[in-house]
Amino acid sequence: MIDIATRCWWLAEALQHPEFRGEPAPALGADADVDVVVVGGGYTGLWAAWHLRELEPGIDVAVLERDECGFGPSGRNGGFINGFYDHAGTLVDLFGRDGALAVIEAGARTIDELDTWMTAHGVDAWFRREGYIGVASAPRQAGGWTEPLGVARELGIEGRHRLLDKPALAAYVRSPVFEGGHFVDDGGTVQPARLARGLRRIAMEHGVRVHEHTPVNRLIPTRGAGGGVEAVTPRGIVRAKHAVLAINAWAAGTRRFGSRIVPRGSYIAITAPAPDRLAEIGWTSAVSLYDYRSALRYVRTTPDGRIAMGVGGERGTLSGRIDARFDFDERGTQHAVEALHRLFPSFRDVPIDARWGGPIDVTSSHQPFAGSFADDRIHYALGYTGNGVGPSHLMGKILANRILGRETVDTHLPLVGHEPRRFPPQPFRGLGAAIVNAATVRRDDALDERGRVDPITDRLARMPRRMGYHLGP
Fold first, then answer.
1. Which CATH architecture best describes the domain 132-185+262-362+424-473?
2. pLDDT digits (tens, 9 = 90+) for 56-89
C-alpha cells in the first residue's frame, strides 16, 4: 500500500506544520445522532460542513472520512483556483448564454470568497492570485486561444482575457516551444493540502465533528414519519436528518452515479527548489499555465522556486472502479517529468523531489453537478473533472443552503439539478474510457512530435465528441 502522505509533496509539506496536522479526529466508535452527516472529508464535504455551521451555528454536523481529510484529490491536485472562464463555450452549449454567465459570475465570486476566508482565518495556503495562461506548446496547438477568446467576446467578458503573441508570452515565461497563448486575469494557485488541512482545522474549531478512518459502507434512507438517513460504518451507525455525499471519483463505483462518472488518473511531478533557474526563464510571477492538448497538462511554480507539472487523462480502469494503481503510475508520472523537461529544458538537471497521482471524477459535460434524492434527504456535488479547488467551495455552499431550505442566487444556478449525459453501460464504459484515454494521449503526443496523427488513433480520440460528450478533441 502506497503512503500517499509521504509520496505527495503537498501533503508531506503541510503535515510538517502543527496548524495543518491539526488535532486528532478519532474514528467513530459508537452510534451517533446528528442533524447532518457528511460522507467524505475533502473540499466539498468540509465546505458543506463549514457553511452549515456558519449559516446555522447550532446545527450538529458530522464528517465521516475513510482515510484522513485532504488525503484524496483535495490534497493531491495541482492547486489551481480558477472559476469557469475557460469553460464558457461548454457552458453556453449546456445552459445557454444567461445560464453560462450566471455560472461564470458565481465562479468569480467564489475566488473572492476563498481569498477572504483564508485571510480571515489565518490559513496560509500560499494563495497567489496572478491569473493563468493557456499556451500553445507545439506548432499544431497554435490557435488554441481562438475558441475561448471568441466565446468571451460573444458573452461580453473579453475584458478578463488577453491574447498573447510570442513576445508577450515571453514577458511572463520563456520556453523554446511556446507559440503564444491567452491570459485570464481571474485565477490563482494554492498549496492544496494546506488549504484542505486548514479547512479541516477551522471546521473542527467551529464545532464540526470529524471522524477519520471511518469508511461508510452504506448510506440508507430510513422509513417512517419524518424520514432521515443512516450512515453505516464498521463500528457504528450515524443517524441524521440529511446526508451530504461528497466522494468525488469514488462515486463511479455507486449504482446511482456509476453511469455518469468515469474515474481518470492525473499525475504530478515536482522539482527541487531552483529559483535561479526560474529567474533565467523570466518566470518570477505566480502566473500558472496549461496547454491546449486534449489530455490537459498544467504547470505552476511554488514560493520556494519549484515547478510542479501535472498531466491529465493517463489512467482509466476497465471496471470503472478505483484501485491502488491510481495513486502511483510510473508511466503517468514519467510523462509529467518528460513534459516538464520539454517545456523547460534548463530544468533537466534539477532533481525531481516527488511524484504522485490520484483519480479525478470525469463527467460527459466536463462540469460539476449538484442535486438531491431520497425525498431531498441525500444531497450531492460531484463531477469536477479536475477543476474542483474553487468550484467545490461554491458547491459546498449550495448544498448547505439546500439542506437548510434557503434559496439563493447560487442554488438556482443551472449546475444544480443538471445531470450529465450517461456514459455507456459496463463493460463498454470502462473499456471505452481506457481505449479513448490512451488514444487521446497518443494523438496529442503524435501532433506535438510529428505534426500528424494516424487515422485510427485520431478517430478513437474524437469518439466522445461524436457521441455528444464535451470531452476530447
1. 2-Layer Sandwich (3.30)
2. 999 999 999 999 999 999 999 999 999 999 899 9
CA 142 to chain centre: 26
pLDDT tens digits for 182-238? 999 989 999 999 999 999 999 999 999 999 999 999 999 998 667 899 999 999 999
Amino acid code (one letter) for 429: R
Q: Are strands 36-39 and 242-245 parallel, antiparallel or unpaired?
A: parallel
pTM score: 0.96
Amino acid at 344: F
Q: Read off φ and ψ for residue 390, nearest 5 degrees.
A: -80, -55
Distance CA 192, CA 190 (A): 5
Q: What's 420's DSSP letter?
A: P
DSSP element (H, E) containing 290: strand 288-291
32-48: burial string, b at 16+ Cβ within 10 Å, e else: bebbbbbbbbbbbbbbb
The residue among 313, 263, 260, 265 whose CA lies nearest residue 444 is 313
CB of 370 closer than 8 Å to CB of 395: yes
Q: Which amino acid is at 433?
A: A
Contacts of 80 (CB under 8 A, 6+ apart): 132, 187, 188, 189, 288, 290, 298, 300, 387, 389
Q: Residue 105 is placed in which grid cell?
A: 459570475
Strand order in the sheet with 352-362: 161-164, 181-184, 132-135, 288-291, 297-301, 307-312, 262-271, 352-362
CB atoms within 10 A of CB 31: 12
Q: Locate CATH 3.50.50.60 in the chain.
A: 4-77+193-260+365-412
Domain 4-77+193-260+365-412: CATH superfamily, name plus number:
FAD/NAD(P)-binding domain (3.50.50.60)
pLDDT tens-place string over residues 239-260:
999 999 999 999 998 999 999 9
Residues 134-158: what's their mean pLDDT? 96
Whether 76 contacts 195, CB under 8 Å: no
